[in-house]
Amino acid sequence: MNFEEKMMSECLKLARKGKVLPNPMVGCIILKNSVIIGKGYHKKFGGPHAEVNAINEAKKNGYNLRGARLFVTLEPCSHYGKTPPCTELIIKEGIKEVIIGMKDPHPLVNGKGISRLTSQGIKVTTGVLEKECKELNKVFVTNVVSNRPYIILKTAQSIDGKIALNNFTSKWITNIKSRKLTHNLRKISSGILIGRTTAEADNPELTVRLVKSGKNPARIVIDKDLKLKKTLKMFTDGEARTIVIHSSRHKETENTDFVEFIGVREKKGVLDLQEMLSSLLRKGIYSLIVEGGSYTLSQFLGTNLFDEMYVMIAPKLFGSGISPFSDYKIDRIADAKELILNKVFHLDSDIIINYKNKL
Predict the structure, then answer these.
(1) Among residues of the chain, what percentage have pLDDT more than 90?
(2) Catalytic residue (one of 4, 10, 51, 291)
(3) Cβ(29)–Cβ(71) under 8 Å?
(4) pLDDT band at 226, cuts 50/70/90?
């Protein structure tokens, strides 16, 4: 790792401290004569950006920034939003060089910040630890580029690939440590999504009760024809916000204190998933874990609307049963969906495999 990468790595550590969704996490370090004179990160949504905080710290400590080098994980903004443009402050303070982790994909920025800096004679370097910077802000990037939440598909299954018996019984396939991992994934997500069949068969709570200090994400259920009984836990316990996705053919149902309804158009008898996901994004669902049954998981796989997949495998054999993607049909092996292996680990006797989508 060279010097620039080491500095960017430190910027990434700073960035992770921020709680800023739907904005990106950003960290910044300023050096002058090889000495760090200022550090900053974007602390909260609507607050000063990382560059501003780093510049203010340097000035507070009595430093003149003229001729300094600024490292930042994301391209500085060049437009007026909730805060003034960072590029203008960088130019004003006489900073001579800016080293950037990744370009900002937001259409209001997307290279404009870089162009503004270079037009003023500032040296700009981009792509330093770009992969790591993109990984840090994968939720933000997906929200902006794809107009949908960042999506993780999750299955808990037997060795022979069954998520339930033929009678839909599915509790519990994996061990308690795997279930805690699922709850940790829920904790860092804005929403959990299931289909009607899973809601009826399991009557799940869809909370983070197995982990400490976790906020329950929104519970989202696809109930195209509004057939679910309102006695289910997600409609009665008030532990979390509940969103019901239904066909726009049906009359809008009145929202309650913690249950709301979103109507979505149908395409050939199937709900338009992209429209649904865009609607959820507007409702503040920035990331989503899909824990549905075979039909729901197959819909996301078939439309390629996902970013990651967690496969949790217990040392059990069911023989016959329900497979997680049995409603996804192909005619040739060449048409099989390919994934990128990200990591493999085990939790006691369970094997956990994490894949990235090969978009």
Answers:
(1) 73
(2) 51
(3) yes
(4) very high
DSSP bridge partners of 102: 74
Whether omega for the bond prior to residue 204 falls within 30 degrees of 0, making it cis, is no
239, two tokens: 């532990």
How far apart are alpha carbons 33 and 36 in whole angstroms? 8
| Residue found by looking up tokens 């023989």 in the block | 319
280-316 per-position pLDDT tens digit: 999 999 999 999 889 999 999 999 999 999 999 999 9
Tokens of 303: 């439309």
**Predicted pLDDT at 57:** 95
Q: Centre a 10 Å sphere on the Cβ of residue 305 and count the other Cβ atoms it contains.
A: 20
254 is catalytic: no
- Beta bridge mates, 261: 244
**What amino acid is encoded at 341 in this protein?**
L
Angle between helices 50-60 and 3-15 (to 10 degrees): 100
Look at the block and give the residue holding tokens 């109930």.
223
